[in-house]
Amino acid sequence: MTQTLEREQRVDRSKPANGKPRGIRRFLNEGHGREPFLRPRARIFWYGLLGVGILAGIPGVLARLTQGLQMTDLGPQMPWGLWISAYIFFVGLSAGAFLLSTLVYVFGMYQFETIGRAALLSATISMFVALALIGMDLGALHKFPWVFDQFHWSSPLSWEVRFYVLYIALLIGELIIAVRLHRGMARNAGRSKTWLKVLGIIGIPLAIVGVHGGTGSIFAVVSTRAGWYGGLFPIIFVVSAMVSGTALLMAINYWQARGTGRKPDNSLLRGLSRVLLAAVLIDILLTFYEYFVPFLAHDDGAREIFAIQAAGPFWWTFIVMQLLMVMIIPSIILLSPLAKKTGWIVAAAMMVVIGVFGVRLNIVIPPMIPGVIEGYPDNAYFPTLLEWSLVAFFVFGGALLYSLVSEWQPIHEPSVDERDLAELTDDGDKVESADTAHTTTTADEPTSTSPTSSGTHKPGPTTHVTPAEGVKS
């Protein structure tokens, strides 16, 4: 009790007499009585890490702006490399995070409501990072506005630019509505929820067909590259997006909760792990057919690409990152008893996020190694340190932008109902474990499912707990 009073007194002294926050607290959640994004110690560590990453990325950005593409290992026969791989990686993160948000706002799966706003913000920031990376890959940055002036109906790139603009506008609009609804600022809560559902419904085909499926189409229509050409490629892109987006939100939710001193929502993470497992298993199936069918068809071009992917200079992106880190190890974890432990679930999710980046490298680079014309020598490419530096700048810069928005708005703050339900679930888990350890039930002594006179809580159906009701033992 004494520590609680001292903490409240410290909070009171941080405000002027009129009770309004001052200084930088005016722009932070805790200055307005909302849950902070991070505790002070975690905040120092996190922003220090982001600062180091951004500083490490400055040389790459300066080299790109002063030297153009000469600072890369790209060439006339190898026009795409690390930056294109990172671009499609972040487009996939965006599409996957958005599709995850539709589980809440479109399909009414409110057990995932805690990550709804985080999913929308992640999707928005990921698109900004993706566009920044593709902008750096353009040889002439000043020609970028021409894509809006010149359009051809048969060009996937022409369609993509317009889909991206609509998609980003939809994400921002939906995020604003979701935040205002959470803060109680919506004039009509029912109408706001309706708008969230309508925008989500519009966004589903936009994200699947227009954004990430469309990005896959950019590769799928290149008939001279055996590793890309085919109708299955856009579908693989969409499923892989769901894999990476779900894994990213799991990792963010867990570490942000730890950073605030709040216990991670185990039931939420377990539910998301089932979504992740389903997406990974579908991805495994599609990958199997992607490789198996060309072998049955005796496609020599595809066989050559597969040999390069498995045993060429980028073998590690296929063997280690795609097969092991995305497919095999996470599947073993999520299908085994380890899936009951939150630490293992989060480890699998983080492994998947990193592994999918390797999948993007494996998609882009190995198919471009063989000469496009018979008799041409094979291409040799490996990203330079300055290329990695530039990617680091935008990755850490995107994480900084995400963090600043989360400091300013309640992106991760659970509602009162969500807090109470989490506490109720945790209490039930603890009591259930105690009952299992200390109670012996025989065959002729059936287990009671109702509360006992001593107040012991037995597991029962989950009920909705309102703030007025509180948590009942």
Main pleated-sheet profile: none
Q: What is the CA–CA distance across the termini?
A: 22 Å
How would you classify the quaternary structure? single chain
What would you call the structural class? mainly alpha
The dominant shape is globular
How many beta-strand elements? 0
* Elements, N to C (H/E): HHHHHHHHHHHHHH
Provide the gyration radius in Å.
Answer: 25 Å
Helical fraction: 55-70%
Poorly predicted ranges:
1-17, 424-473
SS element count, helices: 14
Beta content comes to under 5%
Question: How is this structure best described in words?
Answer:
- By secondary structure, the protein is mainly α.
- The chain contains 14 helices and no strands.
- The radius of gyration is 25 Å and the shape is globular.
- It starts with a helix and ends in a 35-residue tail after the last helix.
Write the layout of secondary structure elements.
Layout: H1 2-13, H2 40-67, H3 82-105, H4 116-137, H5 146-149, H6 156-182, H7 189-220, H8 233-260, H9 266-296, H10 300-311, H11 315-335, H12 342-364, H13 385-408, H14 416-438
Helix pairs in contact: 2-13, 3-4, 3-7, 3-8, 3-12, 4-6, 4-8, 4-13, 6-7, 7-8, 8-9, 8-12, 9-11, 9-12, 10-11, 11-12
Question: What are the key terms here?
Answer:
mainly alpha
Question: Short description, anyone?
Answer:
The chain is an all-alpha fold.
